[in-house]
Amino acid sequence: MRTEHLLYFVTVAEKGSIAAAAAELGRNRSTLSMAISALEDDLNTRLFMRRGNSLALSPVGELILDDCQRLLTLQEKILYQCANPPGEALCELSIGRDDVLTESFWRRVITRIRTSLPDIRLSMRFAGADELPELVRQGQLDLAYAMAFNPDYSGDSLYQQIITKIRMQMMASDQHRLARLTHLNNADLSGSTQITYLDSDQQERFWLANLGTASLALSSFELIRDAIKDRLGWGYVPEPLLIMEEEDSAGLRVLNHGLNTAWYPYLAYSRAPLSSPNKPHSHTDKALQQVHRIVIEEMQLAGIL
């Protein structure tokens, strides 16, 4: 009996369906279904009964739910005690991030940090990708994650680590006139409004200015995606928003144009190396590496890496 399966069981019981639990945990529905089946085989009993499109706990499931919660809490306590020996001081970490990854992704990250590293006093700040490196360099943030428009900011007081590359895709609503064209040229695009990303310096990013098209500048990628969905124009949307929030991204289509895809690096910024063959020198360094490991693991689970 695996504790991970117990976590899936408890989450399905709380959410009432495998689909809702999978969205909460950032896992595939098939992974949860197989885990629940494996747990039922291990316990030789049924834990759920299907009622329409939802699941209800069986009598045995109701009986063991609280004990499963206690086991998960005990596991967290054991992991914490092993990772944080007595005598180490409480540390404070300030994490920054942009909006390329979804709010639900960062909620999962915060939950894992608070669960596995409860001795950390954590704050998380949203800022533009162009602001975050400087905030880390100045010491206002300990760690930041952002897609880099110009990834050449490293120096004596700032480290940057490329985690992956983000694909930006030229999208339109499948009801937009551009989506009905098999192949698009520049003239097709110039006749419609481009929705661009407005950074903290009031600069429009991803704007194809040479087309001479009208633009609508918005300050977040989710607003851009939703404006495109509302047929206000076409624009570039980061792929994580499309794959992590499939329901909200339904009705969008990649346009068949020669510039329909662009790649940008997604970086972690810090004032000390995040991956080093040597052990961290301080409790704060150790905490930073643990937090970074959690972010990377959640990105892997979400299918970004």
UniProtKB/TrEMBL annotation:
InterPro entries: LysR_HTH_N, LysR_subst-bd, WH-like_DNA-bd_sf, WH_DNA-bd_sf. Residues 1-58 form the HTH lysR-type domain. One of its GO terms (molecular function) is DNA binding. Keywords: DNA-binding, Transcription, Transcription regulation. The keyword Repeat does not apply. Belongs to the LysR transcriptional regulatory family. This is DNA-binding transcriptional regulator, LysR family. It comes from Marinobacterium sediminicola.
